[in-house]
Amino acid sequence: MKITLIMVLMLSSFTLFSAENNFLTIIGGGGEPVDAVNTQFDTGITNLSAFYQANKNNYKTTVNFNGGHRETEALVADKYKDATIENGFNQDSYDKMIKEYLRKITANPPEIKEGDKIMIFINDHGGESKGDTHSISASASAMQSMNSGSHDGMISLDTLAQLTAAAEKAKVKLAIIDGTCHSGNSIPLSNSKTCVITASGPKHYGYSSFAETFANNMVKGKNLEDAFLETRAQLNGDGFPEISTPEGKLVQAELYPMLTPYMYYHDEYRGMALDKIDIYLKARAPAYETEMCMRQNEYIKLDKLITLIEDMTSIEKKALFSKKITMEKTIDLSELKKQLKSYHEVQEDYLKRLSSVRRPMLETKEPMKIGTDTMSPYTHKELLDGNWASYMADKNKDLEDTTLTEEKRKDLTYDRDFYAAAALAKEKILREHPEYAQYQNILDELKTNTKTSKTIASSIARGAQTAYDAYYKNTKKKLADGDKNYANPCKDFVL
Amino acid sequence: MKYLFLCLISLNVYSATLVSECGKYDIYGELKKNNKLKVWDLIVNPGSMSEYKFHLTDGQERKLISYSGHSIKVKATILKLAPEYQGVLTNVESVDYAVPDPANMKGVGGFVLIKKEKCK
After folding, report:
1. Residue-wise pLDDT tens digits, A418-472
2. Which chain A positions have a beta carbon within 8 Å of B62's beta carbon?
3. B106 contacts A202? CB cut-off 8 A
4. Chain A: nearest CA to B107, how far in angstroms?
5. Is A401 at the interface with chain B, CB within 8 A?
6. Taken in order A232, A234, A240, A241, is the CA torsion positive or negative?
7. Which CATH code of 2.40.50, 2.60.120, 2.30.30, 1.10.1760 fits the domain covering B2-116?
């Protein structure tokens, strides 16, 4: 009895000694309209609170989220009662988070040591690639563009690299769950100890409820790779969620670049354009004739890869009373191939039309004059692309400043008059070249064309999910068999 | 030897993202209004640790402004190396939309030196 008691005491003291020291920091909730009472991220933060509630004794939790939206603040206070709650997500609180984790990892003795876990969960708006990663929205400033984010409060995730390097060196398990648009840009933060999971590829929005679904799949004992694969299989929206496992990186490198144009679409959100397809077609149209073959080859390569994925997951089947062995598909990607073919043809048609209208615009120049001054001419394309009324309004606004020097006032007035002249020149060339209106009309079609809509892109993304899942599992078998140095920080991060 | 190799790698990265010599460049960036100075800026690697900014002159602004809101490639000369990630452009030769390269998923950004010139 005495010996048993001693053993129990020894075991419990050992458990105490080796107890894991885990941390969860939730950041984001920025870029929302200033006058709103809540944010679009409230469901995500609610779902994640279930994990927090069940594991708050194992994860020291900090909520560095939102700021300025009444209902969201009340929700955070209610759902995360025993957590540390920062006063709004901004550059200072973000820098503080990194600094504090760095201090704890590098302290002597370390406060976060080998085997301990840190999870940074980002639920926010995210812009396109900036620097090494991308930027996300801080609170107290509304986002102006769904592509760049483009407002004063954008925070670069580049500085997380300091933390990933320190965690790797100290063998601390780090997870970055980036639930934002364009979050595939965060994958480069991964290393042998850092698992990065993202809601979308680097070039796409992530309107698929990824963060909400992933939070639901966070259950004690589950590893992050499994949580990711489960989440991916449950999603219905657009985007292309990514993971930094060796399998993920291989599959993503093969599939994503080729799928990219077919997951673009046109839509609107809070008066802002979701216009990846417009931008893509506008950018590609000038080089359409020289790139036609390249685009066709890329499409054929994608089609072949999808067939290969179907084949590699087929199983042998022997018919009854026959020696003949046939291969039977376990997944059917024919609908995905059909959708890709159809969208490819739609894009080709747009590119052909835009290219034929655009060519003369590039070649023709319009002389520009203000009073007696002759300026460098604009090409017709430049005149048509310019939003001259808005540039004039901007100069008029600048001129309202009563502290301007006389010289600055003169320059601003000159520029304003120049843009007024450009606006008139634009009207003139549109009158003289009615065919130019076609260019804008073609682009305007995208706004209502169901063949370039979010529904099409989401449907392709769903089909691509089946292909991704099959390809991922197949790659996993091969990698696990072959590579002795195989490291998978997502699998090693067990919740 | 290993360290020499590492140095060479970091040197290449450095010259790809920063301006370390004068000359004619292809500059990949985007335009943004600087409301404080009431000028337009050409910003390279915006929002990153290696953000580089050029205040445009009125003439440069008029030449480039119809490309605002897009990633652009500007062929221009830099004759003065300025500190603190801020430079001056002379002779803006041409501008065009920077077409994203499907093989380069990180998009376009940075400087490509075309021809070295003496600093002034």
Report:
1. 999 999 999 999 898 888 888 888 989 998 999 999 899 999 999 999 999 999 9
2. 375, 415, 418
3. yes
4. 7
5. yes
6. negative
7. 2.40.50
